[in-house]
Design goal:
The complex is a heterodimer of chains A (115) and B (112).
Chain A (H helix, E strand, L loop, with lengths): L3 E4 L2 E4 L5 E7 L6 E7 L6 E7 L5 E2 L8 E7 L2 E6 L8 E8 L6 E3 L3 E5 L1
Parallel strand pairs in A: 2-11
Antiparallel strand pairs in A: 1-3, 3-8, 4-5, 4-9, 5-6, 7-8, 9-10, 9-11
Chain B lengths: L3 E4 L2 E5 L4 E7 L4 E9 L5 E8 L4 E4 L2 E6 L4 E6 L8 E9 L5 E3 L3 E6 L1
Parallel strand pairs in B: 2-11
Antiparallel strand pairs in B: 1-3, 3-8, 4-5, 4-9, 6-7, 7-8, 9-10, 9-11
Classes of the chains: A mainly beta (115), B mainly beta (112).
């Protein structure tokens, strides 16, 4: 199966700082990647769709200026949580879709804790 | 708006038992349905993918069925083992898209 690598797996940051999370497709090119967020005891919720070479598409209620997404190459998308606050503490996970495939492949996820 | 519900929220069974996890969705216009496994603090492992035109998929001790018209899917686990303990997530793909709408999951505990 296709491999998607997400880094870091766990990060703790101070309130007000920014954190960058990387999502890489290791053995295929992904024109589209997706970013999800999961709060405790809640379902995974789609935050945004990341398209290579163009602006990301954000789901309703997700602040695009707070969650910056860059998809500069066919194998890398980054999510930057700017001016992080404790309420941003969550599990963030990316998925990538290989052209011609029928399913998305997920990264390992990033546990973000803002203190 | 598509909503996915999973019942039960938690399930505890003795080792060796056969069990069924349930998933329902409100909009039958789905592209596909996937079952995932999530271990604590870890990412997702895809277990089974059922296309909208299919009725079921099998992999080892796992069997997933799909009744699109009634908006239901079940995941059957045969001869459960302690290593099956995890949270099982059901997700439906939106029409023609790779975006997934997830349920909250069923937390399964298989006791030795």
């Amino acid at each position: 199966g296709a491999v998607v690598s997400q880094h870091p797996s766990r990060v703790i940051c101070k309130s007000g700082t920014s954190v960058k999370i990387e999502c890489r497709s290791l053995d295929f090119q992904a024109t589209t990647m997706f970013w999800y967020r999961q709060f405790p005891k809640q379902s995974l919720m789609l935050m945004a769709t990341s398209n290579e070479g163009s602006k990301a598409t954000y789901e309703q209620g997700v602040e695009k200026d707070k969650f910056l997404i860059n998809h500069a190459s066919l194998t890398l998308s980054t999510l930057t949580v700017t001016s992080a606050h404790p309420e941003d503490s969550s599990f963030y996970i990316c998925s990538a879709f290989r052209q011609g495939a029928t399913e998305a492949f997920f990264g390992q996820g990033t546990r973000l804790t803002v203190v | 708006k598509q909503e996915v519900t999973q019942i039960p929220a938690a399930l505890s069974v003795p080792e060796g038992e056969n069990l069924v996890l349930n998933c329902s969705f409100t909009d039958s216009a789905i592209y596909n349905l996937q079952w995932f496994r999530q271990d604590p603090g870890k990412g997702l492992t895809s277990l089974l993918l059922i296309q909208s035109s299919q009725r079921e998929q099998t992999s080892g001790r796992l069997n997933a069925s799909l009744d699109k018209s009634s908006g239901r899917s079940t995941l059957y686990i045969a001869a459960s083992q302690p290593g099956d303990s995890a949270t099982y997530l059901c997700a439906v793909g939106r029409g023609g898209s790779e975006k997934l709408v997830f349920g909250k999951g069923t937390k399964l505990t298989v006791n030795p």
